[in-house]
Amino acid sequence: RQFFAGQAGLQGETATVRETSLTHSFCQHVTTSAAPLIVPDAYRNPVVSTNRAIQDLSVRAYLGVPLLTAQGDAVGALCSISDGTREWTNEDLSVLQSLGQLVMTEITLRTYVRENQRAQAAAEPANKAKSEFLANMSHEIRTPMSAILGYADILARNETDPDNLELVET
């Protein structure tokens, strides 16, 4: 299927449902080839001349560019369509490619944010366990340390006061 993440100008059920089957998709050719598709007149283009979008959605002219990841994989297409024939210019293509790069930048940023949120959520139990462990260890160490510090204080006082020296026989 093809899903319209954003659209302007579609009418009827397609505009509401925001998707069609691939029988109504010119974009599938862009995604499959990872290359732009320029169609001034769909009736005369052998790649799309039998596509049902021509009749059902009144698509006559089409310009589509792939949405490419940093690795060069096409994850979708950005397109412009017209219900009349149209000679697409190099400037039209350039503008659509620039918009496609902006879309991919936004997708990449949202993906990083989502992954970061998942990583933080996954790390939260470990962070909580670490904090609990340190609190417990601090308590467990504090008790014997109090005794050790007390004995050290007694030893320090005995060392400075020769009259308090006690001999312990073993």
Description of the structure:
By secondary structure, the chain is α+β, with helices and mostly antiparallel strands. 52% of the residues lie in helices and 14% in strands. It has four helices and five strands. It has helices at 12-17, 27-33, 53-56, 90-160; strands at 2-3, 19-20, 37-39, 61-68, 74-82. Strands 3-4-5 form a three-stranded antiparallel sheet, with helices on both faces. It has a two-stranded antiparallel ribbon with strand order 1-2. It starts with a strand and ends in a 10-residue tail after the last helix. The model has no long low-confidence stretch (mean pLDDT 84).
Which keywords apply here?
4 helices, single chain, 170 residues, 3-stranded antiparallel β-sheet, alpha+beta, two-stranded antiparallel ribbon
Write the layout of secondary structure elements.
Elements: E1 2-3, H1 12-17, E2 19-20, H2 27-33, E3 37-39, H3 53-56, E4 61-68, E5 74-82, H4 90-160
Antiparallel strand pairs: 1-2, 3-4, 4-5
Short description:
The protein has 170 residues and is an alpha+beta fold. The chain has 4 helices and 5 strands. The longest helix is centred in the C-terminal third of the chain and has 71 residues, at 90-160.
